[in-house]
Design brief:
By secondary structure, the chain is mainly alpha-helical. It contains 4 helices and no strands. Helix 1 runs antiparallel to helix 2. The longest helix is centred in the first third of the chain and has 21 residues. The protein is elongated, with a radius of gyration of 16 Å. The relative contact order is 0.23.
Length: 75
């Protein structure tokens, strides 16, 4: 499993995931909206933690610098 989520993307996912988690508890975790927010938070925090997003792989997207060709290798 190669990382396809870059540093800035991971930080943004962590912030939005934490906000969704907080909002889920404010809304009430047993409500429909609360459960949906918990799922969103889990996905965002999980992908931020491991640095891999399955949807990015399906779409061929990578925000990680590991997949970019360096200038010295391109010469």
């Amino acid at each position: 499993m190669n990382r396809n989520v870059g540093t800035v993307d991971r930080a943004a996912r962590a912030v939005v995931g934490a906000a969704a988690l907080g909002w889920a508890f404010v809304t009430g975790v047993t409500s429909g909206a609360g459960l949906a927010l918990l799922v969103v938070a889990a996905v965002l925090l999980g992908t931020a933690a491991v640095g891999f997003c399955p949807l990015y792989r399906l779409l061929g997207i990578s925000t990680s610098n590991r997949h970019q060709v360096s200038r010295s290798a391109a010469r």
